[in-house]
Design goal:
The protein is of the alpha/beta class. The chain contains eight helices and eight strands. Helix content is about 35%, strand content about 15%. The longest helix is centred in the first third of the chain and has 12 residues.
Length: about 190
């Protein structure tokens, strides 16, 4: 992990909720359709480990996506993400309601997005992160840009940033080495 500026470390230490967009963040943004019209999405197993690690340290995770699909619902279920909002047109309205429900302030929220639909949210949260291959305008407004591109370990990198702001990463990964960690799907 690259050395982070102190201001980013401070923001990361305050995070209690990490919200991920999907297409372009948890996937590379490619839409694939089978011969019978079913949508296929490719997710990175490294991201699953990152999301599970956040959960293991009591950092809440959520997915807010403008799109909805069976593969996305399956991935959210496999990862045990309780706060799953597919087909969302106003991401800020959904996130505001979730923050109210969980009693979180904007400064305690990290949002990871890659396109203009994410900008409204990214401008209002404590830590905004964009993948390396995000739309240029989003990268201009992000607090941090990951080394990874969408679908290539962005969530894992975000988990490393947040957990690394609180403890040495080799300590954080001890939980990932426990047999019960693998009981959860990644």
């Amino acid at each position: 992990m690259v050395h982070l500026p102190n201001v980013i470390k401070e923001k990361a230490r305050a995070i209690k909720l990490v919200v991920f967009d999907v297409d372009g963040v948890l996937t590379d943004g490619t839409l694939t359709y089978s011969a019978d019209g079913e949508q296929v999405k490719h997710f990175n197993v490294k991201d699953g480990v990152g999301i599970k690690l956040l959960d293991a340290y009591d950092i809440v995770t959520a997915i807010i996506s403008a799109k909805d699909s069976a593969p996305l619902a399956r991935r959210a279920a496999d990862l045990g993400i309780q706060h799953f909002f597919p087909g969302t047109k106003d991401k800020w309205a959904v996130l505001s309601a979730l923050m109210d429900e969980l009693w979180f302030e904007p400064g305690e929220v990290c949002y990871v997005g890659d396109d203009v639909i994410d900008l409204k949210v990214m401008k209002k949260v404590g830590l905004s992160i964009a993948p390396d291959d995000a739309f240029w305008m989003v990268k201009d407004h992000a607090d941090l840009i990951t080394d990874a591109g969408g679908g290539r370990g962005v969530a894992r990198e975000v988990a490393d940033i947040i957990l690394g702001s609180r403890m040495p990463l080799d300590e954080a990964y001890i939980k990932a080495m426990l047999p019960e960690f693998e009981d959860k799907k990644i």
